[in-house]
């Protein structure tokens, strides 16, 4: 199996790279700086022939380049996010995640029909529990709705997360019959993973997965360690039963210690 990771040098993406390599999975890592990535991940990637590092700006890639990189991949994970500084929060590209997801989806659909794919490519988008899943009927309090509306206006990254998930829901929906889930004729399926407030624990711990938030993302947030989020995403990729359970959904992940 080969997995393409966008945002592989980020705080969560780098942990996902480590987990996948430990699990014997081939990884194509897209990073802005190859040298910085190698230096930061030296003990995990030294002489590791399972890892291919691609130095590139995903938004600057041509469709042909991205389609070529996707050849042979069974899964794509986006851990892209905006840097938490003025430039990252307020300057271009304000729709980094959305535009990247759109490009990836388009490139997957452009893979030649005779490519050796027996199953749709799995696309995992790391998002946020502050993104309300309206299609699942999720409700929040008036006060939380007001705060989210203000965040949407004041902080472009929040709107970007919403738009990226909305794009997948709108353009790559799946249909269901009364007996079984029927796959639309498409080359991709998706899951949007929503962690709560992220922490930097070093080891995988017990965590729980829910279809929707069980806490207020604004007024009573839980915690999700980045390594747990990475672990869940790696399991989605590897475990087809788990994938079928959550595909076309937006599961929320919490560290078990913060559920109650």
Please characterize this protein's 3D structure.
The protein is of the alpha/beta class and 260 residues long. The chain has a single domain (2-258), classed as NAD(P)-binding Rossmann-like Domain (Rossmann fold, 3-Layer(aba) Sandwich). Helices cover 38% and strands 20% of the residues. The strands form 3 sheets. The chain has an 8-stranded mixed β-sheet with strand order 3-2-1-4-5-8-12-10, sandwiched between helices. A two-stranded antiparallel sheet has the order 6-7. Helix 4 (63-70) crosses helix 6, helix 7 packs across helix 8 (156-171) and helix 9 (226-238) packs across helix 10. It is globular and about 50 Å long. Mean pLDDT is 87; it is low at 176-184. This is NAD-dependent epimerase/dehydratase.
In total, how many domains does the architecture comprise? 1
Shape: globular
Could you give the order of strands across the largest sheet?
Answer: 3-2-1-4-5-8-12-10
* Uncertain spans: 176-184
* Biggest sheet descriptor: 8 strands, mixed
Mean pLDDT: 87
- Which quaternary structure do these chains form? single chain
Radius of gyration: 18 Å
The structural class is alpha/beta
- Spell out the helices and strands N to C: EHEHHEHEHHEHHEEEEEEHHE
- CATH fold topology: Rossmann fold
> What distance separates the N and C termini?
37 Å
Number of helices: 10
Q: Please report the total strand number as a whole number.
A: 12
CATH class: Alpha Beta
Organism: Catenovulum maritimum
InterPro entries: NAD(P)-bd_dom, NAD(P)-bd_dom_sf
Domain NAD(P)-binding: 7-239
Protein name: NAD-dependent epimerase/dehydratase
